[in-house]
Amino acid sequence: MSLGSFPQEDPPLAPLLLPPVDADRRLRGPYTAASAIVSALVPDARPELVARYDTELRAVAPDAHHLIPLRRRSLTGLLPKAERILVHAPRRTLRLSNGIAEFLREHLAETGPRTLVVENVHEADPTDRELLAVLRRRIDPGLLTVVTGERVVPEKSLSPEEHDALADALEREGTVGARLGAIPHHREHGTQPHRAVEALCFAVEWCLEAGCHDAAVELGSRALALADPQEIQEETWWRLAHSTATALGALGREPEAEALFDRARRESVSPVTHAAAAYSTAMLKVRDHDPALRDPESALAWVNQAIAISGLLPDPRERAFKLGFDLNGRALVELRLGRPERAFDLVQEAIDLAERDLPPGEHPIHRMVLLANRAQLAVALGRPEEALENLDTVVGIDPGYPDYYIDRGNLLHRLGRDQEAVADYETAMRVGPPFPEPYYNRAEIRFSAGDHEGALADLDHALELDPEFVDGLANRAGLLAALGEYGRARADAEAGLRIDPRNPYLLCALGQIEMAQGRPERARAAFDHALDLSPTLMAAWASRGMLAFETGDPEGAVADFTRALEPGADPALLFNRAMALRAAGREEEAVADLTRALDLAPDDEEIREALHRP
Predict the structure, then answer these.
(1) Does 526 or 230 have the greater pLDDT score?
(2) Alpha-carbon distance 428 to 398, whole Å?
(3) Contacts of 463 (CB under 8 A, 6+ apart)
(4) How many CB atoms lie within 10 A of CB 301?
(5) φ, ψ of residue 21 in degrees (nearest 5)
């Protein structure tokens, strides 16, 4: 018998990274496992490595802040709770997971391969499950082997007395993590529900501020089941309801969120509560995750109700903040209704209120958001230089907030200031946890400069950070198609369309692939579908024009190229239309297009040769 016929044994596992980790969210809430991993590794990690990922490490291990010096600061963390008005998008936790994965990958590159064992994953918060998925995806299994397990035990494995003893012990530690997960049984299910509500209220607000929306919904729902609005302070009940509904809305569960706001309207006679519920309902209706369900007209009615109530508040400072908030909300509604001028005036009114009635330095994030929104509206109204001035101010208010560098970089790119745009994208890469947008945007600039290899590397990294980043899939599919890598391009296009079947950019990329692979009917169907969804998509008109030309329809090509040229003259499109015009026997018009194209691109020898060729 040959040696090869013996069964092969699995290679031995690398040494344990740390003792098995319990991921049960009922112990320490979101990031129960992540916190244990970070707390164990940080003391032995290089200080420079800890400093590089300080934001992510501190976010997932709130009880280990004494081990992780704060290097990158954002304004939000320095303000009182009432002034922290930004709500993280659900993808915030993915940013944190990517940062932790990069930290762990670099640490293991120095210490050697390890095995991570995580138990009770079936009871883990979505933040820990997301982290484990990212670790498996982004760290070579030769460097980190992730072993997860689910203990098959009765649901009530601890008696109420044992549960209470554990929870009380964690509570005595006085740590944040314990308060996010351990609620004594006798308080939540016995004679002290008010104590459970206090603990849950702390947990819900912490989770919402941290971007842990699933946990905020779970804990908030438990608290609201215990909290009788007639027996506790109305402000406490409203904070619970508002935080829970806000998290529901962020998760795309708008009907449940609206039901909570409806309940608040039934329970409360407070003007502040009614104004806030009306504003929040308006935002649900104008921002619904399903575009088909958005209802800006209904949103306008709700936000006007909020404005009417807030405008009557007697305290000038409270009125300036709350009314300004509502005016800013109505600006979004007006923008969705196609009235950017009115939206701009509303944001300006909110800015004027803040400058007149708020003390200097109070509510800086509110002011920052208003200026950023004024910048977006100035761009929409064709005033980019004014917008850039606003964004310069915004970035100066909070240099540690990465997202506004993206906005300013995009505007600089639009103004043709690509070096400065790239500098902003690269600053966004440094000041916050890893996220795909700065790499995606830098890829566009690299592509336009002819650096296709650099653009592809950026798109690869963007999609390593978030494989479901649809815009990245669309652009990489188009770039791969242009490079002749049709198999990979098709895989990206089809992956993107599984996530977003009505994405016109993905459909356009798919049409380009079908055309390149000799399937004109499928290509035409993809371009037609893209243009049905986005009639102003220049790339789809241009691609369909090329398809018409290649399939013997020069007049159809001329019509499509003409639509593609509506945003403005482009030498490549003018050249293509000239070729179609020439094929259709319209030589005089072809010469006019070639002449104009050469004016725009005087060094293009192909255009020059075509112009002088009969």
Answers:
(1) 526
(2) 12
(3) 436, 469, 472, 473, 476
(4) 14
(5) -100, 135
Q: And the tokens for 482?
A: 């242009």
Give the burial class of 480: count Cβ atoms within 10 A of its Cβ; 0-12 exposed, 13-18 middle, 19 or more buried: buried
How far apart CA 286 and CA 338 sit, in angstroms, is 13
In what helix (H) or strand (E) does residue 405 lie, and over which residues does it extend?
Answer: helix 403-414
Task: Note whether 22 and 116 are within 8 A (CB).
Answer: no
Task: Please give the single-letter amino acid code of residue 306.
Answer: A
Q: Are 98 and 433 in contact (CB under 8 A)?
A: yes
Q: How confident is the model at residue 84 (pLDDT cuts 50, 70, 90)?
A: confident
**Averaged over 363-368, what is the pLDDT?**
95
> How much is the pLDDT for 155?
47
Contact 14, 114 (CB under 8 A): yes
Q: Residue 187: CA atoms inside 13 Å, Cβ hemisphere, count?
A: 19
Query: Taking residues 367-389, what's their average pLDDT?
Result: 97
Environment class of 600 (CB within 10 Å of its CB; exposed 0-12, middle 13-18, buried 19+)? middle
Q: Token pair of 509, please? A: 């990329």
Asked if 444 contacts 455 with a C-beta cutoff of 8 angstroms, the reply is: yes
| Spatial distance between the Cα atoms of 343 and 321, rounded to a whole number of angstroms | 18
Residue 556 CB neighbours (<10 A): 17
> Which pLDDT value is given to residue 3?
42
Give the three-state DSSP class for 237.
helix
Task: Tell me which residue of 2, 292, 289, 13 sits closest to 146, measured CA to CA.
Answer: 13
pLDDT cut 90: percent of the chain above it? 83
What proportions of the chain, in percent to the nearest 5, are helix, strand and coil? 70, 0, 25
Residues found in the chain = 614
Task: Give the separation between CA 427 and CA 177, rounded to whole angstroms.
Answer: 31
Q: Are 405 and 374 in contact (CB under 8 A)?
A: no
pLDDT in tens, 108-159: 999 999 999 999 999 999 999 999 999 999 999 999 999 997 654 444 456 7
> What 3 state SS string does 320-373 have?
HHHHHHHHHHHHHHHHHCCCHHHHHHHHHHHHHHHHHHCCCCCCHHHHHHHHHH
Each residue's pLDDT tens digit, 152-208? 444 445 677 777 787 778 778 888 998 898 777 767 777 677 888 888 999 999 999
**Residue 61 main-chain phi, psi, to 5 deg:** -130, 70
Q: Compute the mean pLDDT over every residue in the chain, rounded to the nearest whole number.
A: 93
Segment (H or E) for 118: strand 114-119
Supply the pTM of this predicted model. 0.91
Angle at 43 (CA atoms; ends 38, 47), nearest 5 degrees? 100
The pairs formed by 284-293 with CB atoms below 8 angstroms and a separation of 24 or more are 284/249, 284/254, 284/257, 284/258, 286/332, 286/333, 286/336, 287/249, 287/332, 288/254, 289/252, 289/254, 290/252, 293/254
Q: Is the dihedral of CA 264, 270, 274, 277 positive or negative?
A: negative
Distance CA 22, CA 9 (A): 28
